[in-house]
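pasting input
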Amino acid sequence: MKLLICGGAGYVGSHMVRYLVERRHDVVVYDDLSTGHRASVPDEVTFVHGDIGDAGKLGRVFAGHRFDAVMHFCARSLVGESVVDPYVYYQNNIGNTLVLLAAMNQAGVDKLVFSSTAAVFGHPHGETIDESHPTEPINPYGQSKLMVEKVLADAARAYGLRSVALRYFNAAGADPSATIGEAHDPETHLIPNVLKAVLGQGGGLKVFGTDYDTRDGTCVRDYVHVNDLASAHLLAIEYLAKHEGAFRFNLGNGSGFSVKEVIAAAERVTGRPVPHEFAPRRPGDPATLVASSHQAREKLGWKPAVDVLDDILSSAWRWHLEPRY
Ligand code: UDP
C-alpha cells in the first residue's frame, strides 16, 4: 500500500512509519517538525517538510502520488496548553484538518485513520469507557478532536470518505530497537518524566494530586504501547477496505495504573529509586481513564502485543538511556 503519514515525525507517527516500513509499505511523511524530529524518520522514506494547513503544498503532494490512504497524526495535544490558548488548538486541530480533508477529496483519496483521544469522553461515568460512553470533553483539546470526529461522520455521508478515529488512552513505550522514542520539549507526560527523574534529568518529578477518589489517591490511567497503537492503525485501513462509513474505536489495555503504581513499576524495571515529590492536582485531569477496547479487538482483530506495564516501561527505559534526539 502507498500511504501518506501526516505527522509521521512525531512520537506515535514515527512508530507508525517504522511499523509500515518493516512491513514493506510505501510511505510518504508530511510533517512541519513543530514538535516532531527529522531524525525519527528513516532515510529511505520520502519526507516533505510542510504544514497541513498549507493547501498548495499539500495539493502538490497529492498530485505527485497515488495514495491508498492517509493517516493523520498532526495535532497539538497538551490539555493544559489547550485551556490557555484554545484558538491555537481549534485552528491547528480542526482548521488544518479541514484543509487536509479537502485535499484528500480533491485527489480522490477515500480512506483516513485519524488520531483521536480518550479526552473526547471527559469525566468517566463507570469503571471502563467503551464507545457508547457519552462524549463530554472537559477541555479544548478533547473538544477539537471530538469536532473532527463529527466532521468525519458528515464527510462519510457527503463525500463517501471512509474513516476510523482511534481514541488513544495513554500512549507509552518505545520501539524495541530503541532508535526512536518519546521526546517532547517540554516533556509533560508521566512515564518520560518518571524515567528522567531516575536519570536525574528534568528538574524533579512532581506527582500531581494525591487526593483523587482512587485506590491510592493518585490518578489512574490505561497505558498502551505505541507499537500496539501502530498495529491498530494498519488493521483500521484493512477494515476500511471492507467497510464504508466513519468508525470510532477506543485503544487501551483495559487495566488502570495509578501514578504511584507507575513509579513503583519504574523502580522495579530500572532497579533505581524514582525521586519525586507530591504536588497539587493538575487542572483538567480526570481521576480515572481506563478503556474498554472490546470493539477494536472484535471488529479490527486488534490484540496488544505488549500488555504488561513493566514491559512498556522497559522499552521506554532503553530509549531514555540513550535517546537519539
Ligand atoms: N502526571 C504526574 N506528573 C507528571 C506528569 C503526569 O503526576 O510529571 C500525572 C498526570 O496528572 C496524570 C497522569 O500522570 O494523572 C498521566 O499524565 P500524562 O500527562 O502522562 O497523560 P494524560 O493522561 O494527561 O494524557
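fyi Residues 79, 170, 188-190, 193, 205-208, 219, 221, 259, 282, 285 surround uridine-5'-diphosphate (CB under 6 Å).
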